[in-house]
Specification:
The complex is a heterotrimer. Chain A is an all-alpha fold. Chain A has helices spanning about 10-15, 30-50, 55-75, 105-130, 130-135, 145-165, 170-185, 190-225, 230-235, 245-260, 270-275, 280-305, 310-335, 340-360, 370-375, 375-400, 415, 420-430, 440-455, 455-480, 510-530, 535; strands spanning about 80-85, 95-100. Helices cover about 70% and strands about 0% of the residues of chain A. Helices cover about 65% and strands about 0% of the residues of chain C. Chain C is globular, with a radius of gyration of 26 Å. The chains are: A mainly alpha, B mainly alpha, C mainly alpha.
Chain lengths: ~550, ~120, ~475
């Protein structure tokens, strides 16, 4: 630097040394989200110069970007990489704390997120580029392809970053990167329903963000740290006078994430949003967005707030019980009432969120055994992603030619499209947790084991009851697939159970991308049912929570 | 420069504001004393090219103003980010990395501008 | 970092000058503040007279000549007359905002002057002091900020008048000012890149050898264009477009409040001219041939003369533009701002940054220049090729679009501009016949600079409909 001696004392210069003004970055570690974000930009640019039928390239570009991101996960297999680190704090003597950590947990979550996003891109292909696969009528009413794929990838980039974030600021920013494009995605079809859905989602989500930020600021104020591991360290040695502040902050942060994962009573936005959004976007929200929300919950609760497990454990247990129960009861009512397929899946996904929350409810004490309990949630999330995406894929397929979108549309599906019906039956049975949908069963057993081992008996009972209740609507739907079609003229649309039957109502087209998506989910489901240890291995990885 | 000197440079800005306020008050006061005051209904009527005004003057305006306001916010804020970079850019310790980072940043700006351009936002219709 | 701060502190203190800005006694500061106001008002009066005189000469007229020698006191008389006029506040106006608006418009214009270095160090009542009121480390940023606050005055004036024309005029004016402010800010960034400071006095100090106008010609030109747009002056005086908007945002204003808007406009002109002087023309420093023969040119009160002359140069440019150029159409104006000025300044900024970085890394200067010239030529060739191919596409599409679909209502009945013996506008579905002026527009320099290189862009489609549905 220049020869003028420093006159004013500068903390910055002391901390960084003379020539380290530019931070070192482990580019390989951040490559997956970077690849997704770059793909988003490329798609946006490509959209400006492609027209007409060539717009289909946008979807391929998105897929290529996601595939690249998946490929870039490979070199990270060993885990244990970190970047954007704050140097060791000389005041407290703590170790360096990093904002971006690639651990085994990160990799599992990123794999699930990117893979699910790729399936969502497949599902969106006919919607964003109708030319090769469909006419522009019906539910294929086009959304602007460039914007759609750009927003989707931007949102995925946020989700992928969130899985690796290890400080509150990065978490919040990643969560917002995930959410903001999602609002636009919901309303991108620009019809009244989509607008309403987007507005509901937006308003409740920003409220949740406000709550979350408030909690973050309280936590930061109480502990003086934003890095999760430093917060955990500070909480164990916290001044008792600050205990209430920290506990309030912890509560608000968890409430913020509870909004994102739509735990009851913070679930109000979800059914209308799913119903109003295009089906692929609903699938995206129910899988990618939700997984990312749970990832945030997992990181904040499992790492940062671990010393407060006795505070948030019982609260989340109640939340889990409520979420399961309300989700299932309303789903049963939807099944017996309007029979709207997307709404049914929406409530079913709320109930599934409850199952994922169950291991959180076992937390107690200072969270010493969290590392044994929470991996069950991760396993469940991975399995849930496969089966729920499969179900949404079938709903999207059937919904194209049966715009009423009710469960009754599926009557006799096995006669028209036997493989489609078979796949749907498999996904529904997985969601219900019945053989042959073994992967759902194993995942539920894993959750059940963790709750029994954690000694929260009542939660286990509630969960067991709920699984039985849920059997009703999954089985009714499955049974419909195999029932003979109702003879006679096609009835009036929107007529509940009796609406459009497939046998008499004409053909059912399955565009190639849908077939690939369903095939992928089905194949993966079968593999995981035969060899569940692939997923359940996360239960035994030591130090998954880092 | 001492902290005192630093703040006093800004205090001078406040002084100019005060002098400006004084200038305006004196002018308004003098104007009030000197000017005639004889309003009537027609003088107090909104100007409408010689005909009597109909309805309210607050007309609804075109959405494009709103879009331009958005564009302005984006680009003005981003331009402000360029300023501190430009002042320290040539100093030792920053080097090529800083340049590349700014290329990335300006690249984002350019993509935004290109997007608005190709989507026809910049064409005033 | 700390060295950097120390260095900044040293430079902002005007290392060459022993006297700081805070060392003046309070009465001298106050005197200088009042002097700044007086200077602005006098410059305004002079600029109005000068403008009327110059425009008159350009139009072979005489201009004001009765009040004072050569009519010099004409604008003073006009100002006094304005203050004696009846003040009308229309009934529909939002009174507090209506009164506040001219103040909000005028005071920031004066405030911007606080950081303009009008001269070097002089002796005033026995004190050594700078001909600059205060020297903020972020002086140029401060000027940008005050300019933005000034825009509020215009918006509020238009809104609070409770009248349609002022509202539309103020919106136009705002859209115009904010559009050109972006380009203006980007042109500043180039200056900061060379000066390493945002302080106006440091920037002047850095131009001892070479003016930044020479080092940064593109930034300079962009700034000149942006400053004319920013002050709503011809050929960018659309907000006051008398033919369309009566008078623009100040239609409902009278008496002193109108005078304040007038004052604000001219003070703004002086401010942007001073800023151009400061940033690009070496501020109060004497121009080169003079310094070569006369050492004392850069000392004492002489500096004020150089500053004054340079500002007059820009003021004359303003007047010259007004005397020669016709007003732009709004779409041309916005296109120039967003599609020419902003991309150009972004590219230019990165170009000079790259050159500087490479120089710092020790590359050969000639190699850099050759490489960059090559890159520019390659891009130009590519864009020409691109335009040639795209142009044909466009024309085909337009030819297609021009064919009305069979059965369209307007297709059967051609437009008769004198139907029934009166000039009439086209009905819905009817189209105006091609305007003969179209060929002229094609050759217009602004249109030719813009993306659709052959000038057959959408603007021509618009021009056809422009006359019919004139929308503001």
């Amino acid at each position: 630097m220049n020869p003028v001696p420093p006159t004013g004392g500068s903390v910055l210069a002391a901390a960084h040394g003379p020539l380290s003004l530019v931070q070192d970055i482990d580019w390989a570690a951040i490559a997956p989200p970077l690849a997704v974000a770059s793909a988003a930009l490329v798609v946006l640019l490509a959209d400006l110069f492609l027209s007409g039928p060539r717009k289909v390239w946008l979807a391929w570009l998105s897929l290529a970007g996601l595939a690249t991101a998946l490929g870039l996960l490979l070199p990270l297999r060993g885990g244990g990489r970190a970047t954007f680190c704050a140097p060791a704090d000389p005041a407290t003597g703590g170790p360096p704390a990093c904002s971006y950590v690639v651990s085994d947990l990160t990799l599992v979550l990123q794999l699930v997120l990117i893979g699910s996003a790729a399936v969502v891109v497949l599902l969106s292909m006919p919607m964003t580029a109708p030319r090769p696969w469909a006419d522009e009528s019906g539910s294929d009413r086009a959304v602007p392809g460039g914007e759609y794929h750009f927003l989707l990838l931007a949102s995925v980039a946020g989700a992928v970053t969130l899985a690796a974030a290890r400080d509150l600021v990065t978490l919040v920013v990643a969560l917002e990167t995930l959410s903001l494009p999602a609002f636009a995605l919901v309303g991108l079809r620009r019809d009244a329903r989509g607008g309403e859905a987007a507005l509901k989602y937006f308003l409740l989500s920003v409220a949740a963000t406000a709550v979350l930020l408030f909690g973050v600021s309280l936590l930061y104020g109480a502990t003086g740290a934003v890095h999760l591991d430093r917060i955990a360290a500070a909480l164990t040695t916290l001044d008792p006078k600050l205990d209430t502040v920290a506990a309030t902050g912890a509560g608000l942060v968890l409430v913020g994430f509870a909004f994102k994962v739509a735990a009851v009573p913070f679930h109000f936005w979800l059914p209308d949003t799913y119903r109003g959004a295009p089906v692929p976007v609903a699938a995206y929200l129910s899988v990618v967005s939700k997984t990312a929300g749970f990832a945030g919950l997992l990181l904040v609760a499992g790492i940062g707030l671990r010393p407060y497990a006795h505070v948030w454990g019982p609260a989340l247990a109640v939340l889990a019980a409520l979420t399961m129960t309300v989700g299932n009861v309303v789903a049963v009512r939807v099944a017996t009432g309007s029979g709207d397929a997307v709404r049914l899946l929406a409530w079913s996904s709320i109930a599934q969120s409850g199952y994922v929350l169950v291991p959180f409810g076992t937390a107690a004490g200072d969270g010493a055994d969290l590392a044994d309990r929470l991996p069950a949630s991760v396993a469940y999330l991975a399995v849930y992603a496969v089966m729920n995406l499969g179900a949404f894929a079938v709903v999207a397929t059937v919904g194209r030619d049966r715009p009423t979108g009710v469960v009754g549309d599926y009557r006799g599906l096995v006669r028209v499209r036997p493989w489609l019906a078979l796949a749907m039956a498999f996904f529904l049975l997985c969601l219900a947790g019945l053989p042959p949908g073994l992967m759902g069963l194993f995942a539920k057993v894993a959750v059940f084991q963790s709750v029994v081992a954690g000694g929260t008996g009542w939660l286990a009972v509630v969960m067991a009851v709920n699984v039985v209740v849920a059997l009703y609507y999954y089985l009714v739907w499955t049974a419909l697939l195999f029932q003979p079609p109702v003879p006679g003229p096609p009835p009036v649309a929107g007529d509940g159970e009796a609406a459009g039957t497939l046998g008499s109502g004409g053909t059912l087209r399955v565009p190639a991308p849908f077939a690939v998506a369903i095939g992928l989910a089905f194949g993966l489901g079968v593999v995981l049912s035969v060899a569940p240890q692939i997923v359940l291995r996360v239960l035994t990885v030591p130090g998954l929570l880092g | 420069m001492t902290a005192h000197g630093y703040f006093s440079t800004y205090a001078l800005v406040g002084l100019v504001l005060l002098v400006g306020g004084g200038f305006v008050s004196v002018a308004f006061a003098a104007n009030r004393l000197l000017r005639p005051h004889a309003p009537n209904v027609e003088k107090l009527m909104t100007y409408e090219c010689g005909v009597d005004p109909v309805g309210e003057g607050w007309a609804q305006t075109h959405i494009r103003y709103y879009i331009y306001a958005y564009l302005y916010v984006i680009f003005a804020v981003d331009a402000i980010f360029l300023f501190p970079w430009a002042t320290v850019f040539a100093d030792p310790g920053f080097g090529t990395t800083t340049l590349v980072e700014m290329f990335v940043f300006v690249g984002f700006l350019a993509v935004g501008l290109l997007y608005a351009w190709r989507k026809g936002v910049l064409t005033w219709t | 970092m700390s060295q950097r701060l120390a260095e900044l502190a040293a430079t902002t203190d005007l290392a060459a000058d022993p006297v700081g800005f805070a060392s003046d006694p309070w009465w001298l500061i106050l005197f200088k503040a009042v002097l700044v106001f007086a200077f602005c008002v006098v410059m305004t009066l002079f600029a109005i007279w000068w403008e009327r005189k110059v425009v008159a000469w350009m139009q072979m007229r005489i201009g004001p000549k009765h009040v004072g020698p050569q009519g010099l006191l004409q604008s003073l008389a006009d100002g006094v007359k304005l203050a004696f006029k009846e003040d009308i506040i229309v009934k529909a106006a939002d009174k507090p905002v209506y009164i506040l608006a001219p103040v909000v418009s005028m005071v920031p214009a004066f405030m911007a002057f606080a950081v303009i270095p009008m001269g070097g160090q002089v002796s005033m009542f026995g004190h050594q002091t700078h001909l600059q009121l205060t020297d903020l480390p972020v002086g140029v940023l401060y000027i940008l900020a005050t300019a933005s606050v000034g825009i509020y005055g215009i918006v509020l004036a238009g809104w609070s008048s409770g009248s349609t024309y002022p509202l539309l005029g103020s919106l136009r004016s705002t859209a115009q000012m904010i559009s050109y402010e972006v380009a203006m800010g980007l042109s500043f960034a180039g200056v900061f890149l060379y000066s390493g400071s945002m302080s106006t006095s440091t920037i002047v100090g850095q131009q001892g050898d070479t003016w930044f106008a020479v080092l940064l010609p593109v930034s300079f030109i962009i700034y000149i264009v942006a400053m004319v747009g920013e002050t709503n002056r011809a050929p960018f005086d659309l907000p006051e477009a008398e033919g369309e908007l009566v008078g623009g945002f100040h239609t409902e204003y009278s008496s002193l409040k109108f005078a304040l808007f007038f004052l604000a406009e001219y003070v703004n002109m002086v401010v942007v001219s001073s800023l151009a002087t400061t940033l690009f023309l070496g501020g109060y420093r004497a121009p080169w041939p003079i310094t070569a023969v006369w050492d004392g040119a850069n000392s004492g009160w002489w500096t004020l003369l150089w500053y004054f002359l340079k500002v007059q140069l820009f003021l004359f440019l303003f007047i010259w533009l007004r005397g020669t150029l016709p007003r732009l159409r709004y779409d041309q104006f916005m296109r120039l701002g967003w599609k020419v000025l902003i991309p150009t300044s972004l590219v230019w900024l990165m170009l000079i940054a790259t050159v500087r970085a490479m120089k710092n890394e020790g590359y050969d200067y000639r190699g850099i220049v050759l490489g960059i010239a090559g890159a520019i030529i390659a891009i130009l060739v590519l864009s020409v090729v691109w335009d040639m191919f795209r142009g044909t596409d466009d024309e085909e599409e337009k030819a297609k679009a021009a064919q009305p679909p069979p059965g369209a209502p307007g297709a059967a009945e051609p437009f008769d501009p004198m139907a029934g013996g009166f000039p009439v506008p086209p009905l819905p579905g009817q189209e105006l016949p091609p305007v003969p002026r179209r060929a002229v527009r094609r050759a217009e320099p602004v249109g030719a600079m813009v993306g659709n290189g052959n000038g057959t862009g959408s603007a021509d489609d618009e021009s056809a409909t422009d006359a019919t549905d004139k929308e503001v």
